[in-house]
Amino acid sequence: ITDQVTIDVTPAYDLDIELGPGQNTLICPGEAVDLTATTEAPNPTYGWDNGLGNGASHTVMPNTTTTYNVTVAYGECSVTNSITIIVLNPPSVAAVINDATICPGGSIELQPGGGQNNVTYTWTLQDGTVVSNDNNPTVSPDTMTTYIVTATNSENCTNSTEVTISIADLSMNVLEDTVVVCEDGSVSIEAEGTGGNTWSWTPNNNINGANTSAPTVSPNVNPTLYIAEYSINGNCPVYDSVVVIVGGTFDIDILTMDTTIFQGNTIILNTSIDTLSTNPITGLMYEWNPADWVLTGNDPANPAATPLEDITYTVTAISAEGCEATSNSINITVIPPQYDMPNAFTPNGDEDNDYFRPVFSDGAVIEIEEFKIFDRWGQMVYNNESTNGWNGRFKDKPMPQDAYVYMIVLKLPNGELINLKGDLTLLR
Questions:
Q1: Helix (H), strand (E) at residue 325
Q2: Would you state the torsion angle of the CA atoms of residues 131, 135, 137, 143, taken in this order, to the nearest 10 degrees?
Q3: pLDDT digits over 223-236, tens only?
Q4: pTM exceeds 0.85
Q5: What is the rounded (10 degree) CA torsion for 48, 53, 56, 60?
Q6: Does residue 56 surpass a pLDDT of 70?
Q7: How far is 230 from 329, CA to CA, in rounded Å?
C-alpha cells in the first residue's frame, strides 16, 4: 500500500533592523533613534519588547544602554533579531559660582565645573546669543542676566547648566542732613536703605550702634561729620552723611530784684546769659514759669509782667542745639490799689479842689465804670461826663452849695468791682 504526504515548507526569511537616516547605535542622552524592522516575509506581524508593542517602526529615547528585541511572525514561522542602543556618558558641567550679585559697573568671571579633558564650553544667553567660547569668560552685565554654559565632549554629547548674575540695587539716605545736640549730650542719627544688609558709620568713636541704621552719638567736636556706609556684606557700598552740631552750655540769671508793686502795675523781668563753652548757642527760646501775666512780646528774654497777685517767677532758656538752663527766682509782692472818696469840694475856679472825684494812690490802676451824682431831690446832675470828675455844674450852670449823693463803681486790675455810695458837700 502506498500513500503520499505533501509537506509545504515555508521558506526562511531574514529580519533586519534599520536605523533612521544618519543614525547609529551610539547616542547621547536625550537623543532619539528610529528603529524599523524589515523583512521580505509575506504578511509579517511584529512584536517588540521593552514596551514598544506591535508595528514595524518605533522611535526610542533610552536613558541608558538598552537592547531592543523584535520578533516577526509569518505563517507558522517566526524570526527574532535585536539591536543594542548604547547611550554615551555626557560631559559633566556645573557652574562653579552660584547665582551671584555684582556691583553696578562691576564684572565677574564665569567658571564651568567638571574638570574633564576633551570638553569644550560655550556660554550663551537665553535667546541663544553666544557670549563666549572661552572656558572662563569675564562678563559685565548692566541688568540681571542668565548665562547658559554648554559642555561638548569628543562624542559630541552636550550638557548644560545656567547661572544668573544680578546687579546690586542699593539705595540709602540719612533722615536728617543736620542734627543738633547739647555738649556732653547724645543724639540719635538715623538712615534708611534698601537692597543691602550691612551698616557702618564713621568715625566710630563716641558712637553706640555703629553697625546699625540708627546709632546714638555723643560728639565732643563741633561740628562732627558722620558718614553712613550701606552695603551687601561690605560690597557695593553707598554713602550718605549727617552733620551733628554740638551746642554750647550756658547759665541764665534773672537780674531784676525781688520787689513790691501795686496790682495792675508792670515790671520788666531782665535776664542775662552766661556762656560756659566756645560751642555755638543759637535760637534761644525762653519759657517763663509760671507764664501767668507775662507778656513776652518781641523780647522774650526781658518780658513785661503784670501780676495780679503775689508770684514767684523762674525762666528756662533752651537753645536750638538742645541745651537748656533754668534761672534763679524772683519774688514779686502785689498789693491792692489804694483809693479814697472825699466828702466835700470847692468848685470856685482857684484850681484847688475844683473837682469831685475819687483819689487814687500813686501807681494805682483803677478804672471808673460808673460815676453818678444826685441832688437832694434825686435829680442826677452828673453822669461820668468828664475824666476830671464833677465840676459842680449842671447843664452848664453852677449848682448851689448843698449836700449831694454820689454813686460810683470802680474796677480793680483783677476785675473786681467796688461799689461806693456816700454824701458830698459842695461848698462855695
A1: strand 324-326
A2: 50
A3: 999 999 999 999 99
A4: no
A5: -80
A6: yes
A7: 51
